[in-house]
Amino acid sequence: MLVLTRKAGESVVIGDEVVVRVLEVRGDVVRVGIDAPRDVQVHRQEVYEAVREANIAASTASEEAITALQGIVRRAGAVGPTQ
């Protein structure tokens, strides 16, 4: 991990396209601005983690869903394709 000291108005450049600027420091609160291309996603960590967990939950099939899908596939196979 790179640890830097920056004052209000100073910046850090990440790669060629991302600039993180310290906007304001008040006590233990630091406001930062992030200038990044639109195709680069920027999230607060707690939001990123919530989205990641929701995606994992949505992509995990429950036993109930698998059983239901197997029933649909069996019934479709028994009927055969329509022409």
TrEMBL record:
Keywords: Bacterial flagellum biogenesis, Cytoplasm, Repressor, RNA-binding, Translation regulation. Gene3D superfamilies: Translational regulator CsrA. It is found in: Cytoplasm. Pfam families: CsrA. The keyword Repressor applies. The keyword Repressor applies. A translational regulator that binds mRNA to regulate translation initiation and/or mRNA stability. Usually binds in the 5'-UTR at or near the Shine-Dalgarno sequence preventing ribosome-binding, thus repressing translation. Its main target seems to be the major flagellin gene, while its function is anatagonized by FliW. Belongs to the CsrA/RsmA family. Homodimer; the beta-strands of each monomer intercalate to form a hydrophobic core, while the alpha-helices form wings that extend away from the core. PANTHER family: CARBON STORAGE REGULATOR (PTHR34984). NCBIfam families: csrA, PRK01712.1. This is Translational regulator CsrA. It comes from Kineococcus endophyticus.
